[in-house]
Design goal:
This protein is an alpha/beta fold and 425 residues long. The protein has 13 helices and 16 strands. A hairpin with a 5-residue loop joins strand 1 and strand 2. Helix 2 runs antiparallel to helix 3, helix 5 crosses helix 6 and helix 9 runs parallel beside helix 11. Bound molecules: 2-phosphoglycolic acid (PGA) and zinc ion (ZN). Zinc ion binds next to loops. InterPro entries: Enolase, Enolase-like_C_sf, Enolase-like_N, Enolase_C, Enolase_N.
């Protein structure tokens, strides 16, 4: 039974204010959660409530914090924390808007996750075990950013994330060792080749490239330099985040100095999938271009995972519609896009029902909160995307997964290639 709900302003990994919620139960257990924040947000996701005005560049969260301490705390007092569906339904009803604009998606997601944490604590279980409820789980296949671009790196590249995946690593621990080697090799390579401007928002290297393909070429070279075979041991995964530079099926690649229609865009990406060891592409078309998403899935979805992020915004309804239309074969799952734990789980279940890949994902604005590592394992998502292999808001998640892998001991299973909707060679 919920005794108290409280919130405070804390700071995220970009130094912006965000909401931390704390839920105390009558039995003494408690849970805590911090809302993450996106930079390349989908149009249809739950909206963050920001104060506007002068303070913190308008990014203050006083209103969202007040909503937690006021109406939300009153509504949840005495409620059963173990009934997450009822808690989330109450939050949705109290907000009353389609996009969580009144109370704030940031307020709701922090409370929803804090209730979940409190329920796990009341049972004396780590969150992943509480979520799994005895069902078999796997350690997720990581997607790890090596180069950052797009909205996270001053738009140095049009493509937002240049990532790697090691589906045949055999264990999470080994997958991270491979990642560390490639990350180091990529940094050394870029330092040799010229301007390297530190790291981007999610910790990936932030070099200056002359073209998007130059980044693909450098990443392939980094995989080799680290001693791995591109396309055999280590594959490339891209988040195009096409909504950031496309509207109405027209795409403007600033770096390549090219304007492309939807068909030409898919054609270009198909060319990349043939020229480079690419295993996964996220948001190859914009959120308002379902025909582009479907064309991409038809073109290379038999050999490349096609993920919807901004296109699906962790909505079960959108996942079902896209599955009907063949407009992706995997869903990115971000709890704060949906606004509550239950809605995010529904989107994950809808994707699993379609035999899609599912990837639990962080946001570009993160914190020390490691709940997503537990969600990825406890929900058996099969894959996880956390950003890069630097900055402690990222490393905290990787390190938590190592602890979970150790706790599972001989029962630890690495999802690896089985998590993908396509077969890597
Ligand atoms: P965001 O980006 O958190 O800045 O929205 C992450 C992504 O596009 O996957
Ligand atoms: Zn994305």
């Amino acid at each position: 039974e919920i005794r108290a709900v409280h919130a405070r302003q804390v700071w995220d990994s970009r130094g912006r204010p965000t909401v931390e919620a704390e839920v105390a139960l009558a039995g003494g257990a408690s849970g805590r959660a911090i809302a993450p924040a996106g930079a390349s947000r989908g149009e249809h996701e739950a909206v963050e409530l920001r104060d506007g005005g002068e303070g913190f560049g308008g990014q203050g969260v006083d209103l969202a914090v007040a909503n937690v301490c006021g109406p939300i705390a009153s509504a949840l007092a005495g409620a059963d924390a173990s009934d997450q569906a009822a808690i989330d339904a109450r939050l949705i009803e109290l907000d009353g808007t389609a996009n969580k604009a009144r109370l704030g998606g940031n307020a709701l997601v922090a409370v929803s996750l804090a209730v979940l944490q409190a329920a796990a604590a009341a049972e004396g279980l780590p969150l992943w075990r509480h979520l799994a409820a005895g069902a078999p789980v796997r350690l997720p296949l990581p997607e790890v950013q090596i180069f950052g671009g797009g909205a996270h790196a001053g738009r140095r590249t049009d493509v937002q994330d240049f990532m790697i995946m090691a589906p045949h690593a055999g264990s999470l621990r080994r997958a991270l060792e491979i990642t560390a080697a490639v990350y180091r090799a990529a940094g050394a390579l870029m330092a040799e080749r010229g301007p390297l401007a530190g790291v981007a928002d999610e910790g990936g290297w932030w070099p200056a490239f002359d073209s998007n393909e130059a980044a693909l070429e450098a990443l392939t070279a980094a995989i080799e330099r680290a001693g791995f075979r591109p396309g055999e041991d280590v594959f490339i995964s891209l988040d195009i985040a096409a909504s950031e530079f496309g509207r109405g099926g027209r795409y403007r690649l600033a770096l390549d100095g090219r304007g492309l229609g939807s068909e030409a865009m898919v054609e270009m990406l198909a060319g990349w999938t043939r020229a480079y060891p690419i295993l996964s592409i996220e948001d190859p078309a914009g959120q308002d271009d379902p025909a582009g998403m479907a064309a991409a899935t038809r073109s290379f979805g038999d050999r490349v995972q096609v993920i919807g992020d901004d296109f699906l915004v962790t909505s079960a309804e959108r996942v079902r519609a896209a599955a009907m239309a063949g407009a992706a074969n995997a869903a990115l799952i971000k709890v704060n896009q949906a606004g509550t734990v239950s809605e995010a789980k529904a989107a994950l279940d809808a994707a699993k029902a379609a035999h899609w890949g599912t990837i639990v994902s962080a946001r570009s604005g993160e914190s020390e909160d490691v709940a997503i590592a537990h969600l990825a394992v406890g929900w058996d998502a099969g894959q996880i995307k956390v950003g890069s292999f630097a900055r402690s808001e990222r490393m905290a998640k990787w390190n938590e997964l190592l602890r979970i892998e150790e706790a599972l001991g001989a029962d630890a299973v690495f999802a690896g290639a089985d998590a993908l909707p396509v077969r890597p060679l």
